[in-house]
């Protein structure tokens, strides 16, 4: 296929995403006010607890087996590399732009935390469903694409709520502690947020006292020390967020897919309990449009004043859409060259796409939780997703040209 054909195939799913995003943005406007803050929270809860786990679970259970799971081992490695490389580049951006201190964690997370969950779930099936899709049969492509995207979503949720969440949390605590020295303009925006920060500081002090007492009391039994240490780590890492419904659905789906008796019982046209699989799949169909409308509604918050200057905005775009894709291409193509990644073109396309997606929308939720950098994050996300409409299309075109035989 020619570059023009690849460009058209890449453009169609991006245009579909933009149209649904525009609908979400329109519904969030004050004059319409259908997707106001309360409605977004309710819809987001439905996506988080119902639609997304159903999508992830049904996609993985239908396609993942023990042999295919072994073949996909490079996906988690690739996700880890995106976080490591992005963190380094984000720290460099913070130093180069001399951004305000309270933006350090946000910049690192914006560069490290890509939307490797919902966007692949939108883009891959859309490309596969095109009549001139370069990835072969539409049905097989869609099935495999959903499985790849679902695994990417689960891994993304795990790392976002373990790594990025704690970076923003720690910076918010430090920022709150030093706010009195930096002026009133840096205080949290609501009493609720102040209470959250105060609670986090108190919890941290308790944890430090608990740790010190464990070190001082050498007579404490080993199992008791271990139990206390696990409680400390659970409080710090927020395991409830790490093991999100999508992550739990992934674990359950992997068990069903890899355990042959369970698979024959639930998955397949002749399975006795196939109604469970079909019902979960039906619920999962609502995940993509709902997530995309939420994305558009949340971008409305980007039309605010913030401390983010043009150099910071330009730097984030350069990291996410120039440096990361270039380094990702070297990594994935190098892994393919030495035999670590198979010849499946759709699989390679997903690995490459993970390096070129915009920032994760969950970062906005985290800044809202701790009451710090909300408007800054919203502005960065607005520009990031605006540039992504062109950048993702161009990179997808290039990726197809190098992975399609």
TrEMBL record:
<feature type="transmembrane region" description="Helical">
    <location>
        <begin position="242"/>
        <end position="260"/>
    </location>
</feature>
<feature type="transmembrane region" description="Helical">
    <location>
        <begin position="6"/>
        <end position="30"/>
    </location>
</feature>
<protein>
    <submittedName>
        <fullName>OLC1v1010428C1</fullName>
    </submittedName>
</protein>
<comment type="function">
    <text>Involved in cellular auxin homeostasis by regulating auxin metabolism. Regulates intracellular auxin accumulation at the endoplasmic reticulum and thus auxin availability for nuclear auxin signaling.</text>
</comment>
<keyword id="KW-0927">Auxin signaling pathway</keyword>
<keyword id="KW-0472">Membrane</keyword>
<comment type="similarity">
    <text>Belongs to the auxin efflux carrier (TC 2.A.69.2) family.</text>
</comment>
<dbReference type="InterPro" id="IPR004776">
    <property type="entry name" value="Mem_transp_PIN-like"/>
</dbReference>
<dbReference type="InterPro" id="IPR045033">
    <property type="entry name" value="PILS1/3/4/5/7"/>
</dbReference>
<keyword id="KW-1133">Transmembrane helix</keyword>
<feature type="transmembrane region" description="Helical">
    <location>
        <begin position="73"/>
        <end position="94"/>
    </location>
</feature>
<dbReference type="GO" id="GO:0080162">
    <property type="term" value="P:endoplasmic reticulum to cytosol auxin transport"/>
</dbReference>
<feature type="transmembrane region" description="Helical">
    <location>
        <begin position="106"/>
        <end position="127"/>
    </location>
</feature>
<feature type="transmembrane region" description="Helical">
    <location>
        <begin position="311"/>
        <end position="334"/>
    </location>
</feature>
<keyword id="KW-0256">Endoplasmic reticulum</keyword>
<feature type="transmembrane region" description="Helical">
    <location>
        <begin position="346"/>
        <end position="366"/>
    </location>
</feature>
<feature type="transmembrane region" description="Helical">
    <location>
        <begin position="378"/>
        <end position="400"/>
    </location>
</feature>
<keyword id="KW-0813">Transport</keyword>
<dbReference type="GO" id="GO:0009734">
    <property type="term" value="P:auxin-activated signaling pathway"/>
</dbReference>
<feature type="transmembrane region" description="Helical">
    <location>
        <begin position="280"/>
        <end position="299"/>
    </location>
</feature>
<keyword id="KW-0812">Transmembrane</keyword>
<feature type="transmembrane region" description="Helical">
    <location>
        <begin position="147"/>
        <end position="168"/>
    </location>
</feature>
<dbReference type="GO" id="GO:0005789">
    <property type="term" value="C:endoplasmic reticulum membrane"/>
</dbReference>
<dbReference type="Pfam" id="PF03547">
    <property type="entry name" value="Mem_trans"/>
</dbReference>
């Amino acid at each position: 296929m020619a570059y023009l054909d690849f460009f058209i195939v890449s453009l169609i799913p991006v245009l579909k995403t933009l149209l649904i995003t525009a609908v979400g943005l329109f519904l969030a406007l004050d004059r319409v006010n259908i997707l106001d803050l309360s409605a977004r929270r309710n819809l987001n809860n439905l996506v988080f607890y119902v639609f997304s786990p159903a999508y992830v679970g049904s996609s993985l259970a239908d396609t993942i087996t023990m042999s295919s799971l072994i073949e996909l081992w490079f996906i988690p490695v690739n996700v880890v590399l995106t976080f490591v490389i992005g963190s380094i580049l984000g720290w460099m951006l913070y130093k180069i732009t001399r951004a305000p201190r309270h933006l350090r964690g946000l910049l690192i997370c914006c560069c490290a935390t890509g939307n490797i969950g919902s966007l692949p779930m939108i883009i891959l099936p859309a490309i596969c469903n095109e009549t001139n899709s370069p990835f072969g049969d539409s049905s097989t492509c869609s099935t495999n694409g959903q499985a790849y995207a679902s695994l990417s979503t689960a891994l993304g949720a795990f790392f976002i709520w373990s790594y990025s969440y704690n970076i923003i949390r720690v910076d918010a605590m430090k920022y709150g502690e030093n706010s009195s020295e930096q002026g009133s303009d840096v205080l949290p925006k609501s009493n609720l947020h102040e209470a959250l920060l105060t609670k986090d500081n108190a919890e941290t002090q308790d944890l430090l006292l608990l740790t010190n007492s464990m070190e001082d009391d050498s007579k404490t039994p080993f199992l008791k020390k271990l139990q206390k240490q696990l409680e400390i780590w659970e409080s710090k890492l927020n395991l409830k967020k790490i093991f999100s419904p999508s992550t739990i659905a992934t674990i359950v789906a992997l068990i069903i897919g890899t355990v042959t008796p369970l698979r024959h019982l639930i998955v397949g046209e002749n399975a006795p309990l196939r109604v469970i699989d079909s019902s979960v799949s039906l619920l999962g169909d609502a995940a993509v449009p709902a997530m995309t409308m939420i994305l558009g509604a949340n971008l409305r918050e980007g039309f605010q004043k913030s401390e983010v200057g043009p150099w910071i905005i330009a730097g984030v775009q350069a990291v996410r859409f120039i440096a990361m894709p270039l380094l990702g291409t070297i990594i994935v193509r190098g892994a393919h060259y030495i035999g670590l990644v198979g010849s499946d073109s759709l699989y390679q396309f997903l690995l490459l796409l993970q390096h070129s997606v915009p920032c994760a929308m969950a970062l906005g939720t985290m800044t809202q939780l701790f009451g710090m950098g909300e408007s800054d994050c919203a502005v960065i996300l607005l520009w990031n997703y605006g540039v992504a409409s062109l950048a993702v299309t161009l990179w997808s075109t290039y990726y197809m040209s190098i992975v399609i035989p």
